[in-house]
Amino acid sequence: MINKSRMEIISNYVDSLFPDAKCELFYNHDYELVIAVMLSAQTTDKAVNVVTQKLFSDFKTLKELDNASLEEIEERIKSLGLYKNKAKNIKGITHKLLTEFSGKVPSDKDLLQTLPGIGNKSAGVVRIEVFKIPDLPVDTHIIRISNRLGIASKNDEPIDIEKKLKKLIPESHWIKTHHQLIHFGRYFCLAKSPKCSECQLKKYCKY
Predict the structure, then answer these.
(1) Burial of 116 (0-12, 13-18, 19+ CB in 10 A)
(2) 39, 25, 41, 32: which is closest to 94 by C-alpha?
(3) What is d(CA 149, CA 129) in angstroms, rounded to the nearest whole number?
(4) Cα 141 to Cα 138: distance, rounded to the nearest angstrom
(5) Whole-angstrom Cα distance, residue 73 to residue 152?
(6) Do residues 144 and 189 touch, judged by C-beta distance below 8 A?
(7) Structure pTM?
(8) Torsion sign over Cα 165, 113, 106, 55
(9) Catalytic residues
(10) Which tens digit of pLDDT belongs to each residue from 3-49?
């Protein structure tokens, strides 16, 4: 595993590339972000934004979404993978928020994970985006970068990588670095055809 000084070099580099990195999911209400994050599993934020624009336009409140039929929700999100299961999750999220949380998105990570389709990573994203609570959720981009740069080992689970990153990065930088590493993976250190010739980290890279 790399040390803090190496991690600082990595953090400074991604900061120089993506100083204004932020969440790219569109939402107007907290519950909309919860749903968007759940929908983003195994698909792109761009694809999610297309379907949520229609979904949240047609059903403008949490109550309207809760009252919508499963078929109505499926019709609006069917361009996404796993849309039938995700439609069930939307129904479960809206109903649980209304009946158990008075329509408010909880900030507690364990409570967030009681919502259908919301795991550790998704709960972390909601916490940093809605509540600005320091966290460093790990997605597929961060897993790939961590493996390539020696931050993590091949068999590490996402939660293991999250713990390693949190030890290497000051808590005050967790949110910013989370967004910047995602952008680095999404637009620079891609899964296919990464921009290695331009990269200042290639001397540390295993790719």
Answers:
(1) middle
(2) 32
(3) 26
(4) 8
(5) 39
(6) yes
(7) 0.94
(8) positive
(9) 121, 139
(10) 999 999 999 999 999 999 999 999 999 999 999 999 999 999 999 99
User: How many CA atoms lie less than 13 Å away from 119 in the CB half-sphere?
Assistant: 9
> Degrees (nearest 5) of the Cα angle 105, 107, 109?
115
> pLDDT digit string (tens) for 52-110?
999 999 999 999 999 999 999 999 999 999 999 999 999 999 999 999 999 999 999 99
Q: Pick the closest to residue 36 from 80, 4, 102 (CA basis).
A: 80
The tokens of 134 are what?
Answer: 């320091």
Query: 195 is written with which tokens?
Result: 């921009």
Q: What per-residue string of b and e applies to 70-100 under the rule 16 or more CB within 10 Å gives b?
A: eeebeebbeebeebeebbebbbebbeebbee
Taking the C-alpha atoms of residue 153 and residue 161, their distance in angstroms, rounded to an integer, is: 9
Q: Which two tokens stand for residue 162?
A: 């999250």
- b/e burial code for range 120-139 (CB count within 10 A of at least 16 → b): bbbbbbbbbbbeeebbbbbb
